[in-house]
Specification:
Endonuclease III, domain 1; 201 residues; 62% helix
């Protein structure tokens, strides 16, 4: 199943063709709309005039790369910080996987190992690592033994929890509805009266 995001066809095509682009998009998917994060790798390639390799990104002058990210419209809400994080990601890929992003998952022998590798990437916290493992398994068929357990609730078949479950407009709406429900529940919990210990009555 090809990856589908609510972005232009060229951006989706790049996400499916380039493991590095997919990793960068997932890295940037925080504090910006989904559309901005998953369009950014395609926009970056256009600004550079070609698709960058991990080696090229790793060797960029930090200020130069930050300037590329900052061109309007900026590739992220925090272009300088995210340019640095993308460069850190590229350097890790170069050091551990010979610059081949796909090796991160094609050479993993278990779900636990895959989750550990993803969680070691710059900008990938515990939850994002699980979501990415779920995306790899559900949409790209990367399914080492134990991948669903490693992905936790995000690996459940038929779930609508994250970008791992987005395949069309309908599933996108369902994922967004789920996230809105979580936000509403959290907001309601914060508004409850508290006792002297900070616990809700």
């Amino acid at each position: 199943m090809p990856i589908w995001m609510p972005v232009e066809p060229a951006a989706n095509e790049l996400l499916n063709r380039s493991p590095l682009a997919l990793l960068i998009a997932m890295l940037l998917d925080q504090q910006v709309p989904l559309e901005r994060a998953f369009s950014a790798p395609c926009d970056l390639a256009r600004r550079l005039g070609h698709e960058p390799t991990a080696g090229e990104l790793a060797g960029f002058g930090p200020e130069k790369l930050a300037a590329v990210f900052s061109e309007r419209p900026a590739l992220h809400r925090y272009p300088k910080a995210m340019a640095a994080r993308v460069q850190d990601l590229a350097r890790l890929l170069l050091a551990r996987y010979d610059g081949d992003a796909a090796l991160l998952w094609t050479s993993a022998t278990s779900g636990a190992e895959l989750l550990k590798r993803v969680a070691e990437l710059p900008g990938f916290g515990a939850q994002k690592a699980q979501i990415f493992v779920a995306l790899l398994g559900k949409q790209l068929g990367v399914r080492p033994p134990g991948w669903q357990q490693a992905a936790g609730a995000f690996g459940e078949a038929g779930s609508r929890r994250s970008v791992a479950d987005i395949t069309d407009d309908q599933s996108l709406a369902e994922v967004r509805a789920h996230k809105q429900s979580l936000k509403a529940t959290a907001k309601a919990a914060r508004s409850l009266p508290r006792d002297g210990y900070g616990l809700p009555w």
